[in-house]
Design goal:
Layout lengths: L45 H8 L6 H4 L3 H20 L2 E6 L4 H6 L3 E3 L1 H10 L4 E5 L2 H10 L4 E3 L15 H10 L4 E5 L4 H4 L4 E3 L4 H7 L4 E5 L2 H13 L5 E4 L5 H4 L3 H10 L4 E4 L5 H5 L3 E2 L2 H10 L4 E5 L2 H10 L4 E3 L13 H9 L11 H19 L2
Parallel strand pairs: 1-2, 1-3, 3-4, 5-6, 5-7, 7-8, 9-10, 9-11, 11-12
Helix pairs in contact: 1-3, 3-16, 5-6, 6-17
Bound molecules: iron/sulfur cluster.
Iron/sulfur cluster binds next to helix 11.
Amino acid sequence: MNLLFFSALDLFPRPAAFSREAAGRAYFVLRISNFKIMLTKSKITADQLYKILKNIKVGGSVCTYSYKKCEEFVPLINEINELKEEKNAVILVHSYVSPEILYGVGDFAGDSYGLSKNAMETKAGIIVFAAVRFMGETAKILNPDKEVLIPGLLDGCTLADSINAKDVRGLRKEFSGYTFVCYVNTSAEVKAECDVCVTSANVYDIVARIPNEKIYFLPDKFMGMNLDAEMKRRGLKKEIRYYHGTCYVHEEYGTEQIFKIRTEYPNAKIVSHPECAPKVCENSDYVGSTSQILKYMKETDAKEFLMLTECGLSSRLEVEFPDKKIVGSCTLCRYMKSNRLEDILRVLKNPLDRDRVVIPESVRRRAHTCLEAMFQYTAKN
Ligand code: SF4
């Protein structure tokens, strides 16, 4: 039975992440504001899907939804949802992945930190990770006995691919005495060479707590620069070194977009991600991870926003906060957007070797220690 549960604004808070699994495997729970509550035994219909997705405007024709497009998605969505129940599978979706996946078949949606916790807690035997390979690897590190499948067709991420294990070993020789902190956007073999993993949601607090002044942060150059500035702002004595990797999506943003939007929309709030350049972050009204941005949107009274992060988050905000307006444009991540419903169905039906995440046990164990250090630091919160 499917329970379609569209919560009204005054009945339920808008969640930063949603979970269907928590309500039981047989139920389909989706909390979207401003939709009426429905209880149905039927599968999702094109009408229901279109009601969810029709508000998406930013991102042009690639991101917007017609009724016809929804009609095409619905048979795939229903087949995937049936199959995942049959196979005891769970689908984790990063907020940057296309909305028809996030709202159609996702059991959990969120950022790297939230999803890695979901991966750790799930009782399902199969995890389908609609995101990029390093996120699937994180799920596998935490769940060695589960099958982790990644449906994305484009294997990569400019940031994670900027560094490998050999590079880290070289850096550790050069910077001995430093605590090596890696961003979650790294491969399992890179995590295995580092001391503590962090996400964009917890990087500042974790580094502040590390009892070593000397920190080597990798691979994101901009996040390293932002981290250095934040430690100074907090009055903490830290010597921060950082690697030179970048995310090609966030690297694209500059202050000229901010100044243009500030002229055209003087009341708009500028929201950016810590993978953006320091100049961009300094000129933003709010800087945070994707789930922190969702929380900010929920709590602020502002009505207009420029989102300096991947388009998927703008789409999510347009669905979940229909009374708020996203101005300006956004940028697509080709890796995240290479996830398609057709491939989720394919990996559930008949996974190929390349779809399976496999990590040598010695690497997995060391990478697990690095992730475990992150969970321990955040538990001290
Ligand atoms: S947005 Fe895309 S390229 Fe940038 S860090 Fe995320 S997955 Fe990598």
